[in-house]
Request: fold
Amino acid sequence: MAEEPENLEPAEEPAAEEPAAEEPTAEEAAAEEPVAEEALAEDAAVARPAEPEEALSPKQRRQRARAARAAAQPVRQPRTPEERQAERDAERRRKAQIRRTRRARERERARAARTQSPAAEPLAPRVERHPGQQKTRQGVVVSDRAAKTITVRIDVAHRHPRYQKIVRVSRTLHAHDEKGEAHIGDTVIVRECRPMSRSKRWRLVEVVERAR
Reply:
């Protein structure tokens, strides 16, 4: 029998198996989820138009700030009147201590200033001045109806400083007439005196001319 020719080609080796794709572990999957969520949130924020801010009046802003401050403060528990009084006494003692410290400091500063300041110069001798003279006016009696009182009209004429016109001004005053010497129409001289009544600050000195 004829021999079969030998196959000189090397036999094909079985292909090496490719390693299977590794599945992500639970930790890696959990780490990737927040990244994906953040990316989605950013895309949504970009896509959605910004909402307009609420327009608040100054009063509403103050009210909200006041409410926020009130909410931030701790809630105070109710206290008894004795506790409140004890707190007030402690605050008064604290303030009294502050005042004592400040006053002691001020006294020390004033004492240091007195010791450092030069001696004060002696005061000049006081000059005795002549007591003022009482005013004297001449006028005409226009009424003597009241008891021990006369009404005198004082006429004053002077030249106006700008228009150079003679200006006549009259005023009335009440004078004390102890003896009732003056009558209507008399020309009299009156002088200042202490207050004799609510409206009398003058007294009769002399009757210059009697009425005709």
